[in-house]
Prior knowledge:
By secondary structure, the protein is an alpha/beta fold. It is built from 14 helices and twelve strands. Helix 4 runs parallel beside helix 13 (308-340) and helix 12 (290-298) crosses helix 13 (308-340).
Amino acid sequence: MEITNVMDQAIAKQKLPxxxxxxxxxxxxxxxxxxxxxxxxxxxxxxxxxxxxxxKIDITTTVLGFKISMPIMVAPTAFQKMAHPxxxxxxxxxxxxxxxxxxxxxxxTSSVEEVASNGPGIRFFQLYVYxxxxxxxxxVRRAERAxxxxxxxxxxxxxxxxxxxxxxxxxxxxxxxxxKNFEGLDLGKMDQAADSGLAxxxxxxxxxxxxxxxVKWLQSITTMPILVKGVITAEDSRMAVENGAAGIIVSNHxxxxxxxxxxxxxxxxxxxxxxxxxxxxxxxxxxxxxxDVFKALALGAAGVxxxxxxxxxxxxxxxxxxxxxxxxxxxxxxxxxxxxxxxCLADITRRHIITEADKLAVMPSRL
Length: 367
């Protein structure tokens, strides 16, 4: 079957055990935000400019000083060996081949050292802060030693969201897999629980006291820049700037934490405005098309991260699947730029799109 766009989850669904597929695909509670993450993109329309020479298009960009081939990066997703035997290693090679950044999850089924051994590539490390700070310190040091370039600190998970598919399935990591980064610390195993094994693991290990002072603490133990992942309000955007974050990732955790928060594309503009250009703002959540990437950049994002499309393509075809998804998104984004009359990322402006709010405000300047 030929895969023509990134929405093709069907192959992954066929290939994966139900518990694994449901873990990747589901959202919290009613899954309203899960649906909204996609639908909000579809309500943003284009205002393309014509008769512009688009024979040469440059989509390269710089993220935290690192030059990458496109503003599309790989978001952290847990347990990738549950999708494919090569797991995070295949994803790392695909991202590197695409000339972009991969973010490795704390809960990877491959260690930071293993992933680093896949050759060159710019890699970020997503961090969950455990109650035992010695564990955190050790992990951050290991990531730094392994050549990881930044920390994406997840801040929206003091407790795990209520993911009802996982509760029904009594989700637990398959017996042959472990949380590789925690293996030597006796924290690599997840026990079967009456509901979701992961929810119980998080309740036991992840620190609910996490606050802004811990961002400062993290800065004191590493030279890696810290991206705060999980900001969806102007207030927290300002706090991130004040507390020395190197950047913000506007994220609702793939709609897996608090249901009925806005889609990330809907929250993006207020976060960008509040950051006042002092630090870059990125977005994840619902990005499936090149058109989505353009819309995010038009609303002020410096780049986007994709999660589920990577995991599903990994399940469907391993490294080649992930390469394919990154290639398709790249090509769609380039095409969107050409058809909008943009030849480089700096050409993309707020005037290239029209949002729901714009439609309500029909500004005379538009007429």
